[in-house]
Specification:
Blueprint (H helix, E strand, L loop, with lengths): L15 E3 L8 H5 L4 E3 L6 E3 L6 H13 L5 E3 L1
């Protein structure tokens, strides 16, 4: 389960975030590319746009559930 206390600073403000347990596997980017990106050095993913619509939340939730290390969370 993602830890709000370990939230990465690259995330834009808002309820969705990626924490420091991310292994940059790119799963979230593949499932929800409009909301998740990898850093330019491919060290980890981050939320670059917060989802606002129900379909966007569903995409982000699918990414959260698929994350192999549980690095995606939301408040």
């Amino acid at each position: 389960m993602a830890s709000h206390d370990a939230r990465l600073s690259d995330n834009v403000p808002g309820p969705w975030f990626v924490d420091d347990s991310c292994i940059a596997c790119d799963t979230c980017v593949g499932l929800a590319p409009a909301y998740f990106k990898l850093t330019s050095d491919d060290r980890h993913a981050y939320v670059w746009v917060q989802p606002a619509q129900p379909e966007a939340w569903r995409q982000c939730e699918a990414a959260r559930l698929a994350c192999p290390v549980g690095a995606i969370g939301h408040d």
